[in-house]
Amino acid sequence: MSEENRQDGDNKQLRRKIPRVEQAAILLMSLGESDAAEILRHMGPKEVQRVGVAMAQMKDVSKDEVSYVLNEFVDAVGGQTGLGVGNDEYIRAMLTQALGDDKANSLIDRILIGGNTTGLDTLKWMEPRAVGDIIRYEHPQIQAIVISYLDPDQAAEILGTLDDKVRLDVMMRVAALESIQPQALQELNDILEKQFSGGSGAQTSRIGGVKRAADIMNFMDRSIEGGLMDSIKDMDPDLASTIEDLMFVFDNLVEVDDRGIQALLREVSSEVLVVALKGSDDAVKDKIFRNMSKRAAELLQDDLEAKGPVRVSEVESAQKDIITIARRMAEAGEITLGGAGEEMM
């Protein structure tokens, strides 16, 4: 085998082993502190959190892994001039190659559209309990708009800080919310900007809806989600059924085709996978094992057996991480998710 072919084989193997978020972490850790900080300054809260966690967990990174990531980045930059014409395309290609689709998209929009952090966007950087305190005494419709605007996992945590009756009212309004006048959204944004000294401009007018409600429910603690779903069923059984059909939980991975599972596993670290499987059904474990090499499956089984007791909260957190990756890949058209609705059929 030629040296070039051997290197290509090594690169393909590394690509399967290194999730994109870890590639981004390696790239940033390879830069100086000031350069890495400048890049992070332009990233959103979820992006910073994910890359930061990956950087904190990074151990024993080999020289080959660093070389692979840096070469991938240099190839992306060197393949295009980015000068004079086509800057937008250059920026999109470079950031997507370096950071992956899910992290690059919002950063690309922020750079190309030129939007600063708005009052509503400022909430994304805040602790869920702090946001809950801010909206606690607002009108439920305002609460619903804010909840709909934020990412589902953060929205779920905020709802967890509210009283049961308020939580039910807000979730019903989120499900019924299809759109909002841009002027109304701008007014809400302006109020928050005065409070946080944020930027300006809010262009989103379509928020909320049953799908958004289902997305938020996916990220709630099971105890809260179960009680809230029961309350929604009491008020509107049809709505509850629709939300359940749109929800995607960890056990629904058995409905994903084999190619989709294989693609998903390439993006999930082995540590997260082990914890997530500690609390999963045998059907999910079998699905995962079937879509790994025999050696990888044996190692995973050994890790599961060697892993001691794990808190339920840790299992749920790991499963949510995998669900989040699966949903991002589904939105990008890389995999197709099943779901409760397909399972019932």
TrEMBL record:
Pfam families: FliG_C (PF01706), FliG_M (PF14841), FliG_N (PF14842). GO terms for molecular function: cytoskeletal motor activity. GO terms for biological process: bacterial-type flagellum-dependent cell motility; chemotaxis. The keyword Zinc does not apply. Residues 231-337 form the Flagellar motor switch protein FliG C-terminal domain. Belongs to the FliG family. FliG is one of three proteins (FliG, FliN, FliM) that forms the rotor-mounted switch complex (C ring), located at the base of the basal body. This complex interacts with the CheY and CheZ chemotaxis proteins, in addition to contacting components of the motor that determine the direction of flagellar rotation. This is Flagellar motor switch protein FliG. It comes from Marinobacter segnicrescens.
